[in-house]
Amino acid sequence: xxxxxKEIRDIFLSSSDSKEKExxxxxxxxHDVTIISRVVVNMPSGENCISEADAAHIKELVYEVARMERxxxxxxxxxxxxxxxxxxxxKVTSYKLLAKERRGEAVGxxxxxxxxxxxxxxxxxxxxxxxxxxxxxxxxxxKRYGLYAEMRALMERKWDAESMRDLDDAxxxxxxAFMRALEAQHKTATx
Length: 191
Prior knowledge:
mainly alpha; 2 strands; 62% helix
């Protein structure tokens, strides 16, 4: 085990500028799990990354989306949940590492989300519950048979939508019918 810990330590130290940073790396092994702690990772500030002001604006929008979801949405969203969705959409590990030219994409994603929440506020509760059932059914079929790629491709191609929430009621019913048809195909193929 000592040899493995030494090799990991050497990899980290070889990437640093001096051996002074050796005190910043601590490696321990507990039940076949290697834990690396107190590692200082220097990320380049990058002139092409968003500014602190842009980052603060995005952070405000994330907290506003979470607040609106809690107040008007049908789910108890937290800022952490919104961050996960935003970073997944942008395919970044941290919003602060977002390229300047993609700032508008982040802001647009969050403002579109707020728009959808406002649209849902004025919908009939019965319609909202029906939509929620269709979301669950489509996700269930996609998960059960590994059909997320097909579902997303259809939404993008036919309705130019990234999310089921972007679909109107008729389009959502069409998507559900499509997913049911795919489910029927999979069931008959496995017989």
